[in-house]
Every structure is written in structure tokens, then in C-alpha cells.
Amino acid sequence: MPQFKNWLYLTQHGMFCRICRQHKPPIKKGPLKRAFIEVGILVFRKDYIERHISSEPHQCSVKHQVSLASGYSVMQAFEPTVIMEHEAIIGGFKCLYWLVKNEIAHHTNYPKLLSLAQLLGCDYFEKLKVDQRNNYQSHRIVDEMLEILAEIVESPILEEIRSSQAISLEVDETTDVSVNRQLDLHVRHLDKEGYVFNHFLDLVTLEDGKADSVVAAIKSVLQKKDLPVDRLYGLGTDGAAVMTGRLNGVAKQLTDSFPKRVSVACAAHRLALACKDASNAVRYMANFRNHLQELHLFFRNSANRSATLSAAATTLGLNDLKVKEVKDTRWLSQHLAVQNLQRNLPAVLAALAEEASTRKCPVAKGLYTFCAT
Predict the structure, then answer these.
(1) 74, pLDDT greater than 50
(2) pTM flag (> 0.90)
(3) Residues 6 or more apart from 298 whose CB is under 8 A from it?
């Protein structure tokens, strides 16, 4: 009924009054647990509700609510307000959002962050603990909360993409030890003013690296995100055969499905491969690249050597930087590896000298000569 719906709400424990639970009028006489405030009412009768309206606690709460809502209408003053349980859940979402935004492990640190908030005086987080077995801190609940946050953040971005004039996909297949193959999808879109925007779209795990699997994954993402495929005009990929194959590559299959689409191989990938092939003709450059890769593997494959490098960097007051890998399929990787070595050279030389003198390692001795010269 209109006179009740703005303040009366129902839970599994019965009916409660939003206004009274928000303002919690003091108990002057009677029981400590009052109906509609501390205890839910399970008797669904109109006279019970009307009796609460005329009660002193409710009238007191209404006066407080109207005084807080000065400048608003009476109906706006009765708008549903956030009660303690809802406030705790909203606070939990904010804590989880902060962890994800700062790229901090949320599964392990979420309960710790809530505990810290409670120590700082946020008592309402106790409402997240229903009982010993049911709470809002389990891995399953955290994952569900994370999905909700992702949908909220993604929703306006997808609406912007759907209203764009043209869409282009960027597809990159990566390999990870823990999840095998993954498909990294980005989307570029053009707005009405002609500005280009780039957004991350999705990260899909592939069963294999075949073109059919990649195409099926792309179409599944486009359908799930409800993107306008009639405005899909571009596709950017690397130069791998599975992507650019003339007969059955990903680009060929997507062209058959979306005829307007134009495929472009990544210029950065092509430039990196061209530079790699050109440098192979120069013996010095080939040896230099091989030595850089050997230096990376020397420290990466041994925890003791990595610890020695870290200790040397700490002693010399340098940044504890890892020796970077040189990848032929990644542009600027050799430049970054050389730049990193220059910045951390004293620590690398100290670590190699210790390995050569203490453990009599011939590889360390050869790499020391390479770095020193």
C-alpha cells in the first residue's frame, strides 16, 4: 500500500521499518527488542502496521528523518535508506574494488582488509558474518562480487562501443604455463566526432591454438557482449600463420562471416621480426643477443643466483631489477634488456664474480667477461 511501501520492507526474519532502524530511537520503557526495529514481525496484518505508525518510536524517527531531509518533499524524506546490513555490503564492495584497482591479491587480502577496517571503527562489517559457515568473505562470494563490479564498470564502456560508427578488433594469442593458451581481445572504436578509443574486451582461454578455436572464441565474445558485427570493419593480428593463413586462417574465416572487415598484420610485430632477421646477418649482433638471453636464463633458472643478484643490488644501493628476456616476437625487448643491464650492471657484475669465484662456475666467468666488455 502507498502509505507503507516507502518505509516498510520484508526480510526472511519478518517486516522491519527502515526509518526506525536508521535512527534507532532510545528505549524509554518496555522490552529491549522492539517490533519492527530490533525484531521482525511475521504477523502480516494491517492493524499491526498502523499500530507501529502511531507508536512513539516511529513518530520520533519520522521527525528526525524530516529534519534531515530539509529542503526536500515529505515523500522524498521517506525514500528507502541504506540500513546497516546494506551499508556493510556496500563497504565490502568498496574494499574489494580498492584491492582490484591497486592490483593486490584480493582472495588473500580481502578478509585482512575488512579486519583492518573493523579495527579502525567500522563496526558494521560484523553484519557480513551471518554465522561460522555463511559469510561474505569466502572465495566464492568474492568471485561473485568481482563479477558484479566488472559488469558495472564494463556496462557504460559497452554502451559506448555499441553506439560507435566503426569497430576494429585486436587479437593476440599468448601462452602461459598455468593456463596454456589465452586469447587477448581489445577493441578500437570510432565515435561520432571521429575520435578513436581503445578498450580491453576479454581474455579467453583456448583449448588449442587452431584457427577454428580462435574464430569460435571471437564470435562467442562478440555475441556475449552484444557488439554490432555489422559495423566490424577491422582486425589486427600478428603475422602468425594461424592468424593470416590464406586458406583457413583466422582473418580468412572472419572475412567470410563479416565481408566488410579488413585485416591488418601488426606493424610492430613485423618490424621486430624484420629487425631480428636483419641482425642475424651480422655475426656480432647475433652473438650479442644470444649472450643477453643466456644472462637472463642464468639467473632465472636458479633461485640461489637470483638471491645473490638481489643481495648485490641491495648492498650497492641499486634497484632490485630482474635481468630481462630477449624475445624475437616482442618489439623493443632487446632494447629493454640492454637498458635494464646498464642500470643494474654493477650488481650483475658483483653477482657473476661471486658465482665465478665461490662456486667456480665457468658460465658465470664467461658472462662476466661479456658484461664487463
Answers:
(1) no
(2) no
(3) 305, 323, 363, 364, 367
- Residue among 142, 124, 133, 206 nearest 172 (CA): 206
**Residue 366: its H or E element:** helix 362-372
Cell of 291: 649472450
**Banded pLDDT at 177 (limits 50, 70, 90):** very low
**Angstrom distances, CA of residue 248 to CA of 211, 220, 245, 256:** 7, 19, 6, 10
**What is the Cα–Cα distance from 27 to 8, expressed in whole angstroms?**
21
For the residues 236-249, what does the mean pLDDT come to? 84
Rounded mean pLDDT of 168-178? 71
CA distance 341 to 321: 9
Give dist(CA 15, CA 43) in Å, integer: 9
Task: Using CB atoms within 10 Å of the CB of residue 359, give its burial: 0 to 12 exposed, 13 to 18 middle, 19+ buried.
Answer: exposed
- Which residue do the cell numbers 574486451 mark? 201
C-alpha cell at 27: 528505549
Average pLDDT over residues 139-144: 80
Could you tell me if 261 and 289 are in contact, meaning their C-beta atoms sit under 8 angstroms apart? no
pLDDT in tens, 91-120: 888 888 898 888 888 888 888 888 888 888
Q: Which segments within the chain are labelled E, that is strand?
A: 8-11, 14-17, 166-176, 180-190, 196-206, 232-237, 262-265
Pairing of strands 180-190, 166-176: antiparallel
Residue 4 Cα to chain centre, angstroms: 42
The residues, any chain, with a CB within 8 Å of residue 133's CB and separated by 6 or more, are none
Q: What is the three-class DSSP state of 89?
A: helix
CA distance 82 to 71: 20
- Please give the backbone phi and psi of residue 57, each rounded to the nearest 5 degrees, phi first: -60, -40
> Greatest CA span in the chain, whole angstroms?
95
Mean pLDDT of the chain: 80
Question: Using alpha carbons only, what angle is made at residue 279 by residues 324 and 372, rounded to the nearest 5 degrees?
Answer: 50
Nearest to 256 by CA among 212, 289, 224: 212
pLDDT tens digits, 284-334: 888 888 888 888 888 888 888 888 888 888 887 776 567 777 776 565 677
